[in-house]
Amino acid sequence: MVHSKCPLRDFAAAVLPRFWSRSYLPVVVASVLLTSGCTTLAPQYERPKVEIPATYRFEPTIVAVTANTAWWQQFGDPVLDELITSALVNNYSVQIAAANVEGALSIVTQTRSALYPQVGYAASGTELRSPDTGLTAAIPNLPNPQETYQAMLSASWELDLWGRIRNLSEAAQASMLATEEVRRGVILTLVSSVASSYISLRGLDEQLAVGQRNLATYGESVRLYQLQFKYGQSSLMTVAQAQSQYETAATQIPQIESQIAQVENALSVLLGRNPGPIPRGKSVSELVSPVAPSGLPSTLLERRPDLLQAEQSLIATNAQIGAAKALYFPTISLTGAFGSQSSSLSDLFEGSTRTWNYAGQVVGPIFTFGAVSGQVAQAEAAQRAALASYKLAVQNAFADVENALVANLKIGEQLLAQKRLVSALAEYERLAKLQYDGGYAAYSTVLQAQQTLFPAELALAALRASVLNSSAAIYTAMGGGWIDEAGKLIGRAPPALEEPAGGPPLF
Predict the structure, then answer these.
(1) Is the pTM of this model over 0.85?
(2) Whole-angstrom Cα distance, residue 500 to residue 496?
(3) Residues contacting residue 96 through CB under 8 Å, at least 6 positions apart
(4) Is the confidence at residue 275, as pLDDT, over 90?
């Protein structure tokens, strides 16, 4: 059900013919109720116009059909898919964000309730004994003690003639939607963080494998040169050089292992677990880099949670202006009560015990010495700040996408160059060993080749992970419907903004 733009008038049109048809009700009250509540003093909201680039500077030539796909599945690693699913279900940041949305939704319900009559009840019973003197002694047969019982239904209704309550409701709903975008932003960050951490972990695993492989190779060289020195075929300097190269590689292993443990612990927290080991799937060289998503720059405004959050915050501040301006005008309230009052509980609901009252109240400002104008100025200043924040968020979003695209492009080029470098250095090491074994070069030539090759191999493993992470960063920067696809794994329904079929809740 779509909310009426004038719920007060709709409610009055339904209720008045049924309950307020008695002749003593002033016709003017009915007329006011039927036509009031549809005025708003808030500025008409329109999405701010911002300068949008026509294209991305570094847009790739090959793109995915849509940005709404579960992009992490393109890596082709079932272990990564399972980790992301587990994180979405168990991560505490997501649970906190979801609870915040539910809290904001309850504020919307609470604020909207003021648009409708508030109905309550009260019941009381008293027993009073007076001294046996004075009036009690003068009137024979006067009950003493005296009992009084009362049961009442009460109702109150503030007529929202100037749209104050509706503007507050609109602001509360916009704030709730902003909170929902925060939740979606948490999902975006969580998925990208889990994927990035896992890829970095596999990159470190490859660096560790490179280090251990080189360490084993250098260890074998030390053993061979020690044997050669034992039988007079090599010098002690050669043995010392080989030993130094071995120890240099050995110092790299603990550093990499420490980094692996730290990434595992960080990933465990993302998964909602205590720190511990993380299962592995495909190696970093086996993972498939996701294709960059397609999309015009203008569609970014509909994708990124932070932009949608900034816009909802702007809508909320815009509505707050109307609520503040409504304070210049009088507040009109209707109150009434109907019930029974009796000195005997058994006669409480007899016809003669009925009692009722109704009243109207008008309260308005005359001299506030800046109390109202100050609130209006504060709301208008907040709206200007929210507008600037929205425009800044848009610029930052485009910068994020451009940075992600150029990083993916250039890191890819760097990876190709690094592969060529490693291949050339490996050939250099092979030739240096051949020359040393043939007696045409000193061992320092081999040592120099190995000292250059080892860090190049480590850098290659790190670049493989960086390329994969840069591809993931593009999806993170562009946002998209994939956030909702990830949200479905949590099993949580979106906030319910529609009223139930029977109309708004009365309590």
Answers:
(1) no
(2) 10
(3) none
(4) yes
